[in-house]
Structures are given as C-alpha cells and as structure tokens.
Amino acid sequence: MSVFKIKYFYSCTLLLGLLSFSFATQAGTYVFAGGTNNAGGPIPNDLILHPTGYNGNGGVLNLKVCIRPGSPDASQLIQSTKNIVATWNEQKVTSSNLLNVLPNNSLYDVESVLVHELGHCLGLGHTNLGANGSVFGNDTNYTATTDGLNNFYQGNAGLDGIIGSSDDSRGDDENLHWFRISNNNPFSIASVIDGSTYSNNILDLPAGHDFVANASRDVSILYSTPNTEAVMQQGTDSNESQRTLNHDDTATLQLAMSGLDSVAGNADDYTINLTDGGISNAADCDINLGFDNTKTQFAVCIVGGGSIPPHNITNHWRMTSANIYLNTNSNWHYNTDTPCSESTALTANQWKMISIPCQVGISTPATVEGLFGDELNITGLGTTWDIYRHDPNSGYVALTALDELEEGVGYWIMSLNAVTITVEGQYNANLDVPLVGGTTTGKWNMVGSPFRLPIPWSTATVVKSADGSLLDLASVDPVVGGTGACDQTPVHPNCVMADTAYIYNGSSYDILTPSSGNLNPFDAVWVYVQQPNLALRLPMSAAERSTP
C-alpha cells in the first residue's frame, strides 16, 4: 500500500487602502511587487516592502505579535507563537531544514505554517509562482515573476530539468525575485546585504545564467544542499516540519533592513525586534493571528500597505496591517513542548569538550544559567564548576551566567562533582559555523556537533563564504608531494583546513580522520584552519532528519 502526502498551498490577501483583492504574492520577493495599485497602475517589480511602523529612519523597529482572544485553539498556539517570534528575531541561516519528525503522515505542522505567514507579515513574498490560479503542479515551483506582456506564464526547465533553477527559460515573464549578484545561489548569503550585492534585474545575473534560481527543495540538490527550502516557498507537505530560515529568507529580510537607500551601514538602516504579546487584543498588537474558517481553507496572511510619507519613494512601501488566519479543519500538529532532550555525564574534576545538540534560544534559554543552572547550581559557577569558550585570536574566555551558548560551537566544561547535564530545545537544522583562519600559521577552532545522532567526520564540508561553494575534506587538505598540504612545514599554500579533528577523551586526544571517526551528540573537536572566510557544515544524517 502506498502512503501519499498532500501538499497544501498558502495564500495571501492584500489590502491597498480600502480596496482588497487576492493574488499569489511573490523570501526572494516582497508582497505587492508586480501587482496593481488602487488606481489600476502597476506596482514596480523591484518594490521593497518594509514592516509596519517603518518611517525611513534607522534604529530598532518593535513589533508585537498577538493571538486573537476567542480564537479556537488559541492556547495551542502559544508556544509556536513564541517560537516563530524568536526564529525571525534570530534570523539564523540554516540548510537541511526539511524534517519528517511529526507523529504521523496526515499532520500539518502549525509552527512551520506560522513561520511562513509571519514572513509575509514582515513584508516577504513567495520565492516561487505558487498556486495562483494560472499554474499548477510542478510548474508552481518556477521562480516568482509577473506573467509578462502576453498575460500568461511561460517556463522551460532547461537542460538540468529542474524547475526554478538558473537555466530556466521564461519567455517574457518579468522577474520579481531578488538574487545574490555574485553567484545567483539562494543557498548562500553575502557578508554585506544591500543593493550592491543583491538585485532583481536579470541583467545583473552571472555569466551563463538564464534566470533567477529560487530556494526550492529540488533546486537545493543542484547546490549540494539537499532537503533545504526557503520557508517563503509556497506549499507544505504533511508530516513535514520546516521551522528554521534559509539563506534566502534572511537575506531578503535584511535587504529591506538596509533602508530606503538600500545601502547597508548608514542612518536609515533598521533592525526588527518582535515580541510575543500572548493572547491579546491590545491596541499595540501589530500582527494578529488565530483561527477563522471564513477567511481561508488552510492558511492566509491578510496585509495592507502603501507608500512611506513623506518620502513616497516609488519602490519602497511599508505595511499598514497584518493578520494571519488558519482553518480549524486542517489536521494540525501543535508544537507545545521541547521535543529535543539530550543528556551527558560529567566526570568529577575532569575537563570535557562539549557542544549543544538541540536548538536553544527558541523555546528554551540559550544562556549558561538557563541551560546548566539547575543541575550545576549557577551560584557555583567559577568555584565548583566552570565553562569556557575559545577565541582563535585571543584564547580562552570564561563564560558568565548570562552568556549565550551557540549550536555548532565547542566549549570546555568541568565540575568538581559528578553530574549529568541535560540540554532541551528544538531540533537543529544544518548550521554553517564560522571558522577563523590564520595568515602564516593558521588558527585552532573549537567546533561541535549540533545533532542528536552520530555524524561521520568524513562527511564534514567547508563552505567558502565568498561564493557559497562547498569543499570536501579531500579538497581542503589535498595531498601535495605525498603529504597533506596542512601537514607540511611550512604549511603548503593549498592548505585550506586540516582534514583531521581532535577530540579529548579525558586524558589524551583521539583523532578523527577522513576515513574513520564520528562526532557523537555533545562532542566537540579542535580543527586547524589556515584560510579566512570559511564555515564548517556538518551534514545532517537521514536518521536525524526522520527520528522524533
């Protein structure tokens, strides 16, 4: 017997002034772009939409997210609302963010849907065409565009046969999707995000690219980043959770945050600070969510917007209202707990290298006190127990109770007493952990596993920040003249990062090589990094992706 999953498509209703109308909005794009204004005129394809309250001045933009009182299942939405607020505040970039960890195949993850809809409430549109009434099936995954002068969508998947990739042919369809100018890779992110590094003009595409690639799960395979998709891609499968942001989601939000001039680093830049308002209809609730079956058959975002006075710049608008509605008839999974819970034992008076195997800072605290304060007694920090991180440039740093720990980073911890510590939180996706390289002598970095299950060191990948390209261990430490480039004295110029890692076993170091050794939950290792502007990616295993 075959088990079928059903894909549901989100929609977004737009309000301009007193006129409301619905169409499929186009992470990579902004709500309203390519549409029609109240007077019947065109809205620019390069429109950038800012959240409610932005007036063209820089600073912190505070927005409160509330659950409507009286909404069915309002209490079931409390934890997921807290989580999505934390996710968009953190703006952490992840890959392999498609997990199958729900209890059964018929459930739809309410938190994943709310992450998507909150993206709309911050101004982001769909990366793909979506189910807009004119395209159907796989064609919905073509990159977001208008339908051109001929008023119908055109698409040819090109030689790779993958819809939404860089070799698509789109006829006279007009692009709406912003892309990274240097590589058109939606699974990478620039170090500076503004109009100098991102564009939606196809004339700015790299040589050999025919159209803008979007961050769909099919396209992710072409970039060796499988099981990854922008949360702003329209459409979700049953038995699927997607609660963390992709590179493209974060980049598009931060492009708007570069302000009216689309130049990062000056006075009109802003940051967003979302707060959880709980179940409330207070006047200061900026974004409201809840269930209302008269508004949608699945999930919908209803938003209003217009120009920003007194600037009134044609291609910069702001939102004036934002409301999320869900339908109670969908078979929802409510994320009401902290599903990830992992423990490790500390031997009395023995240093141990550790990492964080759950996603913290979302539903659980990320601080030293929040993670370890109960089991280790926070008042004993510095006397009966200690925890340190390592700065590759300056050495060891003792952590305080309020310092936050990060997934993917390694730490030293020691307790005078034997104790078992437990970390709780959400499930992690793949993380790109920044590495610090050296000049002549290189730098030692402490990195750690972010997962609950073992990862073979042989699968470790290095990401080049400049272009998002991926290097395996054989490429970062190639054999030159019979010896690894990083093992030579002096280090060979071809050395990027050593292909071995070192893990402390309580008395000495064990070595992980490209042919042997795993990183287990809580494991942290030393790696030697020679070149700058790199990140380490430890790929998620298939078991991690599907094991609740």
How would you describe this protein?
The structure is a single chain. The chain is mostly beta strands. The chain has a domain at 336-548. Helix content is 11%, strand content 27%. It is built from seven helices and 33 strands. The strands form eleven sheets. Strands 2, 3, 4, 5, 11, 12, 13 and 14 form an eight-stranded mixed β-sheet that branches. Strands 6-22-33-25-26 form a five-stranded antiparallel β-sheet.
Mean pLDDT: 93
- CA radius of gyration is 24 Å
Percent of residues in β-strands: 25-35%
DSSP strand count: 33
User: How is the quaternary structure best described?
Assistant: single chain
Number of helices: 7
Report the principal-axis shape: globular
Q: Strand count, sense and closure of the main sheet?
A: 8 strands, mixed
Structural class: mainly beta
Give structural attributes:
548 residues, mainly beta, eight-stranded mixed beta sheet, five-stranded antiparallel beta sheet, 7 helices, 11% helix, 27% strand
